[in-house]
Structures are given as structure tokens and as C-alpha cells.
Amino acid sequence: QVQLVESGGDSVQAGGSLRLSCTASGYIYSGRCMGWFRQSPGKEREGVAAIVTGYGGGSTYYADSVKGRFTISQDNAKNTVYLRMNSLKPEDTAMYYCAASNRLRSRCQLEASNFGYWGQGTQVTVSS
Question: Using alpha carbons only, how large is the chain's radius of gyration in Å?
């Protein structure tokens, strides 16, 4: 049974930082895309960042809206992907979902259709 367990969401002021974590279990971790999507009320789910997992991976991908502020990374020994978010803005407020591809991939695209496994989400709220 595949599980993606997220943590790290919180309420912060604009300019602050947070680190989200997502630990995967129940499937082969390496050689897949793992990433973060976000969704706020009334908006479509948006791809934020993704990484090719495993020791042979490491390529990262970012939405333009977060480049230079967010960093995705991984700890292969822990099957865990992190999203470090700096210089947070009120428009970053959303439910953040961890996702993983259900197929082996060497590159990632930030499209929800490429990800077959999803976590329950963790709320990030940024106040001005």
C-alpha cells in the first residue's frame, strides 16, 4: 500500500520560511518523480516543484512562481522529499500536496496527470 505522509505546514507571516516533508512508503522510491502541488479555494491545482528520486536522480523542476524562493531536495535513505520555502508571500497560501509518479521516470513535468499517488495535504497559510 503506497503512502505519502506530509508534514510541516503552518501559519507564518509574509517573508517567513517553512519546510515541508513527504515520506514515501509501500513502493519503489527510486527513479520516480516526487513533487509538490498546491491548491487554494477556487483555483486549480498547481504544480510547484518536483524531483527525480534516488541516487541516480536529483534533477529538479520548479514553477516560475516559486523559482529562487523554493527548493526541493531529498533524503534517499529516508525515502523523503523536502520543500524548503523562503520569502513566503500571501499568494503562497494553499493546501500543499505531495505526489509521486506511479511509473518510473527520468524527467518530471509539473502536471497532475503525471502523478498517480497523492498525500492528504498540509496547509500553508501566509499572512501579510
Answer: 13
Distance CA 61, CA 71 (A): 9
For the segment 50-106, what is each residue's pLDDT rounded down to a tens digit? Answer: 999 988 889 999 999 999 999 999 999 999 999 999 999 999 999 999 999 998 888
Instruction: Give the Cα separation of 87 and 106 in Å (integer).
Output: 30
Model confidence pLDDT, tens digit, residues 4-61: 999 999 999 999 999 999 999 988 888 999 999 999 999 999 999 999 998 888 999 9
Q: Is the Cβ–Cβ distance between 108 and 59 less than 8 Å? A: yes
The full 3-state SS of 52-98, as one line of letters, equals ECCCCCCCEEECCCCCCCEEEEEEHHHCEEEEEECCCCHHHCEEEEE
Given a contact cutoff of 8 angstroms between Cβ atoms, the answer to whether 117 and 4 are in contact is yes
Residues 77, 66 contacting (CB under 8 angstroms): no
